[in-house]
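Cross-check.
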Amino acid sequence: MPLQADTRIDVFESIFLVFLGLGTLVGVVVIAYTLYNAYKYRDNGDLKTDDSLPTLGELPTGGKGGKKLFLSFGISAIIVISLIIWTYGMLLYVEDPSDEFEEDPIEIDVLGNQFAWYFEYENGVESINTMTVPADHPVAIEVTGGDVWHSFGISDLRVKADAIPGEYDETWFMAEEAGEEHTIECFELCGDGHSAMDGTVQVMEQDEFDEWLDNQLALDIEIVTEDEESAADAVDELELVHVEDGTEYTFDADDFDEEGTLELNEELEQGGDFELTIAFDEEVTYEDEATDTIEDSFSVTSPSSESYTIEANGDETDDEDDNDEDDGGDDE
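Predicted model, tokenized:
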């Protein structure tokens, strides 16, 4: 069974230290035994009749040391087999530690494209070359490539996963210290810009990370006139629909501020593609055309804003009516 380990760093450092310690111990024993025998059987010019001494041209019989030889082989075999079993157990923990996690890991999809890293979180938030994670929280990543072979790696955190087009490699890590930054690298030669294909892992406190993640789904919808004055009073209903899950958000003119902006932050739970429909009380001019509805589609994967400039046709109609009345009065 593997020792309890919290991070990949703990696992690989444990394996390294055990191999280093055992290798050092074996080396000391072998060298000491070699020096001892070299001293014991040194040639001082005296003839000896000891039958246990090796004789030139003859195979050593082992003499009375046969039991020691087999004992050394047996102990060595036990040590090696135990080491293999222990190491295998530790590596199994690295491959699938989900049963050991006290809380569900954060899932992030990683895409490697010449020459940048693209990250997508569970709620649809996306970022390029910067992965933001909470401290002391497991992070599960699924890595793939979009064009050629890449290899996603974070040396500080002992993370490496192949990014191959059409295939998905899953791994995990845990960053312990908030405020630290770790370098992301590509470990597979992937083209002229390979050496510049790097990124950063930013580690935050859990509360700070939650706030950051929520703020990434911020959307401002602005409806103004050409003079940049609010035109939100003309809105009858604004409907926003998430394309993937069908979630609908409905607003009216009262939800806009004085500047004609509808600010959405906590309302949006999932990023991705949205379809927008703005229905007006009466016809307006939008992009030089008269309409009572504006339809649009866009993606929200980071703080975004959409602006629509309209002119109310009712104002023009009122002006024309006033002119007609004035003309009629002159005729009389």
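The helical segments are 8-40, 66-95, 206-215, 313-331. Residues 1-5, 316-325, 328-332 have pLDDT under 50 and may be disordered. Passed to J.P. for a second look.
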